[in-house]
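Q: I'm writing up a methods section and want to include an example of the input and output format. Could you take the sequence below and give the corresponding predicted structure tokens, formatted cleanly so I can copy it straight into the document?
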Amino acid sequence: MGKPQRHAEILRITDQSKKAFTTPSITITVPAGAIGAVVNFQFPVFPILNNAGSFIGGDGDTSISISGAIFTNEVAAGTVDADFEDGDFYVDYLTGEGRGKKANSGTTLNWTWKYFSSSDESADGVTKTNVNDSASSIQLSAANTSRKGWSVFNDSSSILYINFGSTASLTAYVVQVAAGGFYEMPKPTYLGVINGIWSADSSGAARVTELT
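A: Here is the clean output for your methods example:
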């Protein structure tokens, strides 16, 4: 991967329909390899913005929140392999391509970052699923970086409690949907896992619609 060009000026956010969103913790797959292996990896959502979310980021002004120990130190884009120390990496903020020298043999990164999207983007894909009601937390939808919209009809006689990103309970939830009620996720669209729990198991279901 050659040295990426810098394009900070082309995605400065001035149009009010274009906004900076923050991803949930998303898994980035890293090729297998021992400590010291130099590998390429790809951010699934890009371009990647600066910390303020106002234009394309770069080393020294980034919205990337690093966790884990595979890569721990961002260096200048285009750094040659011979100059990498274990844990060093760089990113092309426009294309989402990364390259780095592994500090351990792990194969997944769980990072968050800000990305550029449109608040009025259209969707041409739809997936409908039914999830039976349950008195214990259950997944309604898996994390999906292509999600553009999400809604649910609570076809149950019990209240549905929905939580984003972690286990749902009757006291830990984002929204509750009454029996026979409907909920549509507002913008910006949350991309992570969505869980639900009902006040009782009443042999009903959640009718989930996901737009992509």
